[in-house]
Amino acid sequence: MDDQEFIVEVVLENKKAARDPVGTTIQKDLLAKKGYDDISSVRSGQYLRIKLRADSEQDAREIVDKMCNELRIFNPVTQNLTILKVSKP
Amino acid sequence: MTIKIAVIQFPGANCDLDTIHVLNNIIGIEASLIWHNHFKEAEFDGCVLPGGFSFGDYLRSGIIAAHSPSIDEARIMLKDGRPIIGICNGFQILTEAQFLPGALLRNESLKFVCKWVNIKVENNATAFTNKMRVGDNLAIPIAHGEGRYFTDKLKELEENNQIVFRYVNESGEITDEANPNGSMDNIAGICNLERNCVGLMPHPERASEEILSPKKTTHGRLFFDSMVEFIKRRTS
Amino acid sequence: MPKVKKDGDELEVDLTETEIIQIQDLLKRGPSFTEWGMFDVMHSEHCSYKSSRPRLKLFENAELNYDYVLAGPGQDAGVIDIGDGFCLAFRIESHNHPSAIEPYHGAATGIGGIIRDILCMGVRPIALLDPLRFGALKDNPHSQWLFKYVVKGIADYGNCTGIPTIGGEVEFDKSFESNCLVNVACIGLGTIEDFKHAPSKATTPGDYVILMGGSTGRDGIHGVTFASRTLTEMSEADRPAVQIGDPFTKKMIIEATLEAVKTGYVRGLKDLGGGGLSCALSELTGDGGTGGDIDFSKIFTREPGMNSFEVMLSESQERMAFIVRPEGLETVLEVFKKFEMAHAVIGRTDDSQVLKVRDGDRLVVNLPAVALSDAPPIIREEKRPDYLDALLNQKTPELTMELEDIIYKLIASENICSKEWVYRQYDHEVGVRSVVKCGDGDSGVLRIIGTNKFIAASVGTNSKHCYLDPYEGAKGGLVEVCGNVLASGARPMAMVNCCNFGNPEKPESFWFFSRAVEGMADFCKELRIPIVGGNVSFYNEDEVTNTAIKATPVIMIVGIIEGKENIVSLPFKKAGNNILMVGDTKAELGGSEYHSVIYDLEGGIPPKVDEQVIKATWDFLLELYENNFIKATHDVNKGGFIITIAEMCFKNGLGADLDLKESDIDELRDDELLFSESVGRFIIETAPKDLDIILDIANKHNIRVKKIGELTSNSKITVKGLKTKILQLNLNKMKKLYDSTIPNLMEI
Fold it and tell me: Which residues contact B126 (CB under 8 A, 6 or more apart)?
């Protein structure tokens, strides 16, 4: 197995039940008031771009998934984690 | 007996020296400032996780500190039933370390808020509230940007009487206006099932001296006096 | 900009032809590019003060003339001995240009910078104050954006580092629209021992030079030359990216530095701010009479392949330079390791008086240390602007509005209304020292744990007054800020100033600076207040509209209160007590809020200062304090004394019944009496039984003090004794207006 470099992009966002005042404020108090009233919802979150060495794309995904869960890089009580994309640098 | 308390100093803690000052000079016990990597639980009767911005609040308030070796040590203390209090950032660390349930999110107003509030005592059977009476209205200041308490287990908390403080107005009523950060059910502080660990967002160390309090009260002292009482009872 | 050549390459430098020739003559050779870069930076207005130094010579030498001044201008911060073995360091600085471009990070890094300057004196930073200026908020989204993010930047950085913001001021005026002013001040507290361990000069050869903190990157190169030109002169492309601050690293630097200083092995300490390593190393060695041998390869960088030009000029944040005694090297390095702070030993001092930086076997910098820190001054021309006479002659229009309506409008106006929206975002209690908190007094008051001493501090000035008369206005600013500190019960002990002016190359703009400096020098000499530091920010001018900001010499005063029973607060305390007015009210409406809010007028005759009267007033107040005669004090400023009285009524819900017949100021119109902003006045609350003895003391000091009314328990202010009518003001309505202006403008 070749050890390659991968870039994994990850998004952490608040669960629905935990509310998202940042997203709501952007939508209601900024966009809607400036003529973008066709926008029905905005959700905010944090973006992480992780560079790592792994055997394969699948392997890279698994490493990132494991580390985010084990070290609570996202808070499972309030947040969801989504792996957006895996690519080569 | 000399009571020994550790105030754990995480990188970025701000209220550590304030807490040491109150414990040593006002309450009169032996509190030591312990650098987080040097903390050994066996040497102490209890510990305080003080307020501040541990690790800059980077990634999420309290998450990086929750992985500090000092938390593994504190976990032994927790299981052993010794008193542990987390104030503000300390509360955030305790939830991230899962000593206490729930999480602290960004204030509803999206702004940092520094002001004096009132909190009502809901449970006086914890290590830090035994000198209070249920229903007491305490004046304590807050100063935080991420103080909105959230949990998906609210019913359990209520049934188990784990809610220790709620934000109220001066007359003791639980209202929306009295809630400074949008906390679920106006919750200002909670405890674990065993009642030896308490976390709260307000700062009792800032409310322990008349000269600092707008109405010349010293309700903050009750927290630390309770802790001393709890330790004395345990060891007698 | 002129270009210099070396080996076929060209470099643009922001120096005049004269300066270029001076440098070549001094070195007797052409400097290397890195050396040119260092001169460029060190000779910029921001670093060298070349335009302002000739005028600043007017200030009395603080260290020589006052025995409690331990460090004066020219050092990183002013330091005074406050007794009991303690000393106070304080400084004020500007971060105007960066904040106008990127308000959040500009303001945040401004806080970062001022904290470092205090830390350099070996003491713990314990308080921040922030005087800010923007264009009017109403209907101006740009001003609202700047205001919101400057406040947030200051809040986030200050809160994270655990330093309470205990005071400040905000002024709104058209002239600050494209040139907002963000001045930041910091106070540090320590023992005199600590201060002695942290000089900012490297005076001993053979010591180690250690770099500690954040790594060096390509950010901020030429930040100081940016600050030394007007914003419109530099195109978008030229503007360097504003720095991103790291308050967490700063907090660790504070703790690591204080612990290192306590080891006793630190012999020199300097922060890396404007001008980066060039500035810090040349000042340390130049001021200390030594030289340095620095190994370029030891400087830890954030990005690969940085050359010596980039490294020496980088303004990456959060870096400190330490000069350490050889026998203490390991101990100091252990401290840095404990806090996990990146650090490197980058060289040693020597007795050559030359600063050398080696890159392998190449000598990339080889300069006499003093060459960089001693930029020759430039004498600027000054000319009183022609438009001033017409402005001063502007007359107040006849009264057409009801006096009540005018007052309601004033209390709601941007420059007078409550700034609670701002200070609620600042943690003003961390450190458990804050005894008088924001909003409760004219100045913040901090205790010194372990003593019965309290520190009172305040900042401000009135730029509308300074615009009309910079000499009297600068003095008036001093009267006002000293008045704030006095109102809390302290005698003013020392001053630092932050001069914000336009383009010094324009004679009219330089005239304002020159006159303001004269005003400050004269007043401080007369009232015996040492000037222990200052900062000058020029080039706050919009070239496109040809408008400079209104002259803004910001003053900061600190004072000490001995004994907690001597702390006085602002709110009225008890119904039935007397309300006394201390000081003279004159028809001085020039530059007043009344003129600008009601008539959109900028002119008129501004307030003048009579030093003898001010001296007597202060002595009077202090004598009253000694006898505990005063229950509440507030100094009178924007909007006049009715506004002052209303502000004192708000907290405890008291009201006031005033009768001005006693004040025998017949020659004034009603509006002149009510809205004059004559400086040096106070409203005080006293017990009826003490009235006679108080009036006797006033007579003794030969100042005007009159009982103007009494406190009541209903929420209105009634004013009898005016020429035109009896005034009835509803305090609940006033409080609502006062509280809601800024939230209404800022909360969408």
Answer: B164, B191, B195, B196, B198, B226
Domains, chain C, with CATH or none:
1-57+197-372 (3.90.650.10), 61-192+421-568 (3.30.1330.10), 376-417+570-748 (3.90.650.10)
CATH code, domain carrying A67? 3.30.1280.10
Query: Predicted confidence band at C224 (pLDDT cuts at 50, 70, 90)?
Result: low
**Residue C225's pLDDT band (cuts 50, 70, 90):** low
A70 touches chain B (CB under 8 A): no
How many contacts, defined by CB atoms under 8 Å, are there between A and C? 3
**Which of chain C's residues have a Cβ under 8 Å away from the Cβ of B25?**
449
Binary contact (B11, C429; C-beta < 8 A):
no
Nearest to B36 by CA among B5, B62, B65: B65
To test the contact with chain B by mutation, choose from A48, A72, A81 the residue with the greatest count of B C-beta atoms within 10 A, namely A72
Query: Are the C-beta atoms of C480 and C461 separated by less than 8 Å?
Result: yes
Minimum CA–CA partner of A33 in chain C: C748
Alpha-carbon gap: B150 to the closest alpha carbon of chain A (Å): 7
Q: How far is C246 from chain B (nearest CA, A)?
A: 8
**Helix, strand, coil percentages, rounded to 5, for chain C:** 40, 25, 35
| Catalytic residue of the set B41, B73, B146, B205 | B205
End-to-end CA distance of chain C: 45
Over residues B101-109, the mean pLDDT reads 96
Distance from CA of A2 to the nearest CA of B (A): 32
Which residues 52-91 of B have a C-beta within 8 angstroms of C? 52-53, 55-58
Task: Report in angstroms the alpha-carbon separations of C580 from C482, C619, C695, C719, C729.
Answer: 20, 16, 10, 14, 19
| pLDDT tens sequence across C566-602 | 999 999 999 999 999 999 999 999 999 999 999 999 9
Pairing of strands B84-87, B46-49: parallel
Verify whether residue C95 is a known catalytic residue: yes
Distances (CA, A) of C672 to C396, C532, C594, C623, C656: 9, 37, 9, 30, 20
C560 strand-pairing partners: C455, C491
Tracing tokens 């005694």 back to the chain, one arrives at: C325
Measure the CA–CA gap between B7 and B39, rounded to whole angstroms: 9
Token reading at C44? 């910029």
Average pLDDT over residues B14-39: 97
Total residue count of chain C as it appears in this document: 748
Give just the sign of the alpha carbon dihedral C504, C505, C509, C510. Answer: positive
CATH number at residue B120: 3.40.50.880
What is the tally of structural domains in chain A?
1
Q: Are B142 and B113 in contact (CB under 8 A)?
A: yes
- The model carries a pTM of 0.92
Q: What is the largest CA-CA distance in chain A?
A: 55
The rounded distance, in Å, linking the Cα atoms of A81 and B59 is 14
Q: How many domains does chain B have?
A: 1
Question: pLDDT (tens digit, 9 = 90+) per residue, C43-100?
Answer: 888 778 888 999 999 998 999 999 999 999 888 899 999 999 999 999 999 999 889 9
Q: Search chain B and give the residue with CA nearest C450.
A: B25
- Asked if residue A30 belongs to a domain, the reply is no
What does the pLDDT average to over C536-557?
Answer: 92
Angle at C215 (CA atoms; ends C212, C219), nearest 5 degrees:
130
Q: Which residue has the higher pLDDT, C274 or C300?
A: C300
C363: which DSSP letter? E
- Mean pLDDT value across chain C: 91
Q: In whole angstroms, what is the distance from residue C402 CA to residue C647 CA?
A: 21
Whether B209 and C432 lie within 8 Å, measured CB to CB: yes
Look up B88 and say whether it is catalytic.
yes
Using a 10 angstrom Cβ sphere, with 0-12 exposed, 13-18 middle and 19 or more buried, the burial of residue C330 is exposed
